[in-house]
Amino acid sequence: MVTVISLGGSIVAPSEADGVFLREFRSLVGGLLDGKRRFIFVVGGGGPARAWQKAYREACPSGGDDEADWIGVMATRLNARLVKAVMADWCVQDVIVDPTRAEPFRGQVLVAAGWKPGFSSDYDAVLLAERFHADTVINLSNIEQVYSDDPRKNPSAKPLSAISWDDFRAMIGDEWVPGKNVPFDPVASRHAAKIGLKVICAAGRNLDNLRNILTGKDFTGTVIG
């Protein structure tokens, strides 16, 4: 059984790397590795990506999206290397940087990072779920649920426990812009809908809630699909 988790960079490194969270996350993962379950963690860029992209935009206001995207990709690779080191007891393979060329799964944990410009690490998670026959991606970020509208702009927006891919994609659009703040990348969403993948969006720092997701108990989050 392969479980794919898109581990938001805002969880691993909100402004700087969070060792306390990683220690607790490692403990949770270790307690669930029973010989049958295997994990793939696809790690985002978080605070470092945003900070370095901001500096680039300030230095080069007319700079292109590809360069900003590459900066974000490299931040994901730094964060992923950290997660791989934390999971060293179970992760025996290098960090995956191209999900289309992933080697057969050895060990109990795989760690992946961003691939190339044009989408976020969410898309890599979808491709790896397809490659390793997982039917669900758990998307952990700094939001607890998907809302009917942006709650920062619309106080009447309501949290959703479930939403179809058609309705979700109508909300977020189809265009990817580096640093775009949406619950799940539009490019990833398009492919997930195409292959019939389910995505669960939940708060990444609530490890009790994550345990409930992973053990089939009631949880707080949004199921897309």
Overall structural class, as computed from helix and strand content, comes to alpha/beta
The order of strands across the largest sheet is 3-2-1-4-8-9-7
| CATH class bucket | Alpha Beta
Helix content: 40-55%
* Distance N to C terminus: 20 Å
The total number of structural domains is: 1
The overall pLDDT, averaged over residues, is 93
User: What's the number of helices?
Assistant: 8
**Beta content:** 15-25%
Radius of gyration: 17 Å
| Low-pLDDT sequence parts | none
Number of strands: 9
CATH architecture: 3-Layer(aba) Sandwich
CATH superfamily: Acetylglutamate kinase-like
The biggest beta sheet reads: 7 strands, mixed
Oligomeric category: single chain
Shape: globular
The SSE order reads EHHEHHEHEEEEHHEHE
CATH third-tier fold name:
Carbamate kinase
